Amino acid sequence: MAFRWSAASGELSCPVCQDTFKDPVLLNCSHSFCQACVRKWWRTKRTRECPVCKTVSSTKSPPRNLVLKNLCEAFLLEVESGVVCPLHTEKLKLYCEDHRTPVCVVCRDSTSHRNHTFTPVNEAAEFHRNGLQEHLTPLRAKVKLFREVKATWEKTEGEIKNQSQRTEETIREEFDVLRRFLLQEETARIAALKEEEELKTQMMRNKIAVVSEQINFMESTIKSIEGGLNDEDTSFLLKVDAITKEVQRPLPDDPEQVTGALIDVGKHLGNMSFDVWIKMKDIVSYTPVIMNSNTANEDLHFFFQAMEENKIIEDKIRDKRGLYGSHTGEI
Ligand SMILES: [Zn+2]
Ligand SMILES: [Zn+2]
Ligand SMILES: [Zn+2]
Ligand SMILES: [Zn+2]
After folding, report:
1. Which residue ranges make up each domain of the chain?
2. Which of 23-37, 178-192, 296-310 has the lowest mean pLDDT?
């Protein structure tokens, strides 16, 4: 702005309050004052005289000085924006290196800045701009890097959810296989038990039928003998030959003791869970290729460790089989 505030600043202060005009009014003697200041003056003096030249105003409502009002507002705006020195109303054209602040030419000559170093504001600004510019490049690079990391982490966040869903599905599938296997095993074992029950029940029924027939046969002979013994002599003698013939029929052999009639519970229950476990091993796949995405290197270590442990378990199973003949053998 070509306009010099220093020249105007004297014109911008009210002679009464010495401050920048607020809502200035123009008296007919051409002097201007803040509206509030002139009214207060008039109240005190009990006459409408000008505080400067004592001319009495012809009106009690002097017109507003709009040009001056606008000028004052523009001035205050410049002071607020820091372009004008608030102390001397001069433009801040210099930069005090010691105070690290812009100052006006009057400030430069004041005692508070004695022996200080001054630079024109444009040079100082250029210098400080360059200084800040240097910070900008590494800062921008860092923001770029951080943004990339953030994007990666956001992707990871999404991937965690997918991973969890996929893994849950696999867990459910594998447990389904195990459950189906166990159900099949259970069904097969109960079927084998029912078959044995059926067979052995039938065998006992056959034996019971034979022995019942033999009992009937012998009881009918006993009845014949008893009938004869109780008869009158004549009628007894008439029957005696037939009774004797009946008695002479060969008696059935004594029933043999039945062995293995009962269900072999040991066969069904002995070693059952162990046998099922051994059988289950065939459908269980050990898949060391599935590495932990976080610790792929560590996994190699655990893989070899797991291989070692698996070998120990298999050795133990082999020992157990050796001890009891075979894995389906009876203990
Ligand atoms: Zn005033
Ligand atoms: Zn006047
Ligand atoms: Zn100043
Ligand atoms: Zn200074």
Report:
1. 1-83, 284-331
2. 296-310
pLDDT of residue 84: 84
Distance, CA of 44 to CA of 42 (rounded, Å): 5
**Ligand 3 mean position, distance from CA 67 (Å):** 26
Which residues is 327 bridged to in the sheet? none
Ligand nearest to the CA of 104: 3
1-83: CATH topology? Herpes Virus-1 (3.30.40)
Query: How far does the centroid of ligand 4 lie from the alpha carbon of residue 117, in Å?
Result: 7
Residues in the chain: 331
What pLDDT score does 259 carry?
87
Which chain residues have CB less than 5 Å from ligand 1, an ion?
A: 14, 16-17, 34, 37
Nearest to 21 by CA among 71, 63, 57, 60: 71
Report the pLDDT value the prediction gives residue 323, as an integer from 0 to 100: 47
Half-sphere exposure of 172 (CA within 13 A, CB side): 6
Nearest residue to 184 via CA among 55, 67, 313, 276: 276
Q: What is the pLDDT of residues 176-229, one digit of tens each?
A: 999 999 999 999 999 999 999 999 999 999 999 999 999 999 999 999 999 999
CA of 34 from ligand 2 middle (Å) equals 13
Tell how far the Cα of 90 is from the centroid of ligand 4, in angstroms.
16
Instruction: Evaluate whether 267 touches 330 at the Cβ level (below 8 Å).
Output: yes
Cα torsion angle, 113, 115, 119, 125, sign: negative
Q: What does 15-66 look like in DSSP terms, one character per residue? A: TTT-SBPSSEEE-TTS-EEEHHHHHHHHHHHTS-B-TTT-PBPS-SSPPB-H
Percent pLDDT > 90 in the chain is 65
pLDDT at 1: 41
Residue 115 to residue 307: CA distance in whole angstroms: 83
In this predicted structure, the answer to whether residue 114 has a pLDDT above a threshold of 90 is yes
Average pLDDT of the chain, as a whole number? 86
